[in-house]
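Subject: Sanity check before I submit

Could someone independently write out the structure tokens for this chain? I want to compare against mine line by line before I put it in a report. The sequence has 174 residues.
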Amino acid sequence: MRFLLMFSAFFLILDSIAQDNYPIPPLTENRLFYIQHSKNHNTYVYDANFTSEKQLDSKEPVSIHRILYTDGGIKKPLTTLQRKLAYGIEFSKISETVFKLKLVSYAGLQLYMKIGQDGKAFVEAFIQNQTIILTRMFLKMKEGRSDFNPKLEQVILYGFDNAGNQTSIKVIPR
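---
Independent answer below. Compare away.
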């Protein structure tokens, strides 16, 4: 058992090191999480979208944009293909303060956007019988695949557990 724990920790550290040179997008007040992948450093950013009355916008509760670090860090909206096939979000309103979210490319990941007692939005991910307050995701793509036919090798979710400790969960997509 101890060997298995040490072996797992070793690979978790290697995964973290592999991402050390990735840029961190500037933090905003409404940041939920961001996604990066192994093909390049471009980053997909998800922010809570509030109305002027400080309520989640029921028509578009999440605002998504990309930061093109390969083009000097410019901020752009998602393309239609990115929104519909890769990085877009589908949502359903559960209450005024809770939305169920689904990444269009990863239906198996249960995400819930909630408003905390401090009035700030956050996203909980439920995966592998664990709950994580999501701060970022890293998609490790299989090498040798085209951008039009990508395959995921693994997904790593980073965030905090219920006790407030930093944690990560590695998922091998099927």
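---
OP: Matches mine. For the report I'm noting this point. The two ends are 26 Å apart (CA to CA).
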